[in-house]
Amino acid sequence: MRPFVQPLVEAEGAPAIELRTDTIDSEIGPIVIVTDARALCALDFGDCEERMKDLLARRFEDLVLRHEANPLGVGEKLRAYLDGDLHALDDIAVNPGGTEFQQTVWSALRKIPVGATRTYGQVAASIGRPTGSRAVGLANGRNPVAIVIPCHRVIGGNAALTGYAGGLPRKQWLLRHEGALI
User: Which among 33, 130, 112 is positioned nearest to 73, based on CA atoms?
Assistant: First the structure.
């Protein structure tokens, strides 16, 4: 798999932000990892490359992507998770950006236990917004660190599998992998 590296032009006189990127192959397709010096900034599937480029361009005004094998050990932890160590992702530091509300939602998603699911309404109630299920859904859809911020664990109010940026087959795979009843 070719590395996800997009040469970007640095602005004259302004320092560029350097991000590190790697791509790992998995049973559910290639997964692209992007980190800064301290944390995971983005993680998505290889066939979602345009969304990833758009996300990075909106978050970082001037950036340079450099290929680095297993930046911050994220690739190794992701492989361990995919191989059955379902808690391998728990201690990955994330820097997803986003609004304060999005960060609150994403923090709540990381608290959903492996093998469990929550509805949008349950997530909204857990953050003190009992009528905010639609807003939670919108924040869920903007999650730049899928799998690590486990948006696949959020389902519809009638237990329906709702949208997932990586596609419903991947959502189903991840839930089955974690032992969730679907």
Answer: 33
**Is 151 one of the catalytic residues?**
yes
Which is the catalytic residue, given 17, 41, 151, 175?
151
Report pTM.
Answer: 0.87
E runs forming strands in 10-137: 17-24, 31-35, 40-45, 63-67, 118-119
Q: Are 32 and 145 in contact (CB under 8 A)?
A: no
pLDDT tens over the chain, length 182 residues: 434 444 444 445 556 889 999 999 999 999 999 999 999 999 999 888 788 888 888 888 888 899 999 999 999 999 999 999 999 999 999 999 999 999 999 999 999 999 999 999 999 999 999 999 999 999 998 899 999 999 999 998 888 888 787 889 999 999 999 999 76
Tokens 């909204």 sit on residue: 124
